[in-house]
Amino acid sequence: MTKYIECWGADKPFANITENTLAKNIGLTSIAMIESNLIPNKSNCFDFSKWCKKDEMNPVTLWFGDAVQEREYRNQPDIQFKYYVASSMVIFVCMGIVQALTVPSSVLSLSIISVFLRVGFILKLCLMAFSAIMHVSLFITLPVFRSYFDSHPDSLPDISWQSKLCMCFVVIVTILHVLDRQIEYTSRTDFQWRSKLKIEQDDVETMRGINKILLENILPAHVAEHFLAPRTTQDLYHERYTSIAVMFASIPNYKEFYDENDVNKQGLECLRLLNEIICDFDKLLSKPKFSCIEKIKTIGSTYMLAAGLRPGEEETRGETKEQQHNVIVLVEFAIALMALLDQINKESFQRFKLRMGVYLI
């Protein structure tokens, strides 16, 4: 596509494109290049190593390295809190029933702390350790528990019941702590995955907006909408119009004005002036009387437009009236361009000339 753009001149734009097959191939190549350049690299959002990196989470405390993200995680509403309370109440009632039958089963009280899944595992470890110490202290110091354990010997008489009681609590606390840590790790990685997924969705929406702007700059708005909409087929878009008027407007002496030297910053000032001229031309298209004109492309100092490209309205007028209307609008636009260029010449002290041609299809 680049070699064709380089050979387009202000005098005879599109003069080198003479074969219809070649033009179609250029169109297909352009669309393929647009799609390949605008679509970002594909990645699997379920790739766990991408979402949970080692430097983003402390391996000991499981806290996020980003303080803002840690605050957002802690401030999440716990919609299942009522179920945690209900579960702890069921365990408490069951523990009370079992406690009436046998004393050592009070170790189940530690599981009440673990049912609150959103509480930090370090805090739950501290609460379970405190509860275990209180239980062991009561069992050892109160006479009712001492007499109970002394009167119920078990299969390991060589080990004192105090040691076995402490080991029992240590094992239970360790198991519950490991489970709590795994639950919090899963919860935090899930939160991090959802946070980064939201960021990726925002990036996709931003890319979609950029793609739309770029396509609307290359194609008419309704054609860009067609290519951006989800489609089951990849057929090329086309419309049939009974009457179209095309106009080329060029500044033939701009090549003489353009020069690359230190005075104009290697041609940047020349390009800046051309950009201002084209922007002023574009402003004319926003007027209601020129609403039927569609800007096709700007190639160098050549300005290409077409009148009559109204999707779905090509059959609303008679053919003769349609042709006259398209030509009249383009002629009026050409007169407006000449007046605008004269004003620019006065302000910039230049002598640019405007050459235009209108072709009726």
Automatic annotation (TrEMBL):
The record ties this protein, via Gene3D superfamilies, to: Nucleotide cyclase
- Which coarse location class describes where this protein primarily resides? membrane
Highest taxon listed in the record's lineage: Eukaryota
Q: Where are the transmembrane segments?
A: 81-101
**Where is the Guanylate cyclase domain positioned along the sequence?**
245-359
Instruction: From the Swiss-Prot or TrEMBL record, state where the protein is found.
Output: Membrane
EC number(s) for this protein? 4.6.1.1
Q: How does it sit in the bilayer?
A: Multi-pass membrane protein
Query: What are the recorded GO MF terms, alphabetically?
Result: adenylate cyclase activity; ATP binding; metal ion binding
List cellular component terms (GO): membrane
Reactions this protein catalyses: ATP = 3',5'-cyclic AMP + diphosphate
User: Where in this chain does the entry annotate a coiled-coil region?
Assistant: none
Which PROSITE patterns is this protein grouped with? GUANYLATE_CYCLASE_2 (PS50125)
What's the short name of a Pfam family annotated to this entry? Answer: Guanylate_cyc
The UniProt keywords, alphabetically, are: ATP-binding, Lyase, Magnesium, Membrane, Metal-binding, Nucleotide-binding, Transmembrane, Transmembrane helix
Keyword set includes Transcription? no
Protein's recorded name: adenylate cyclase
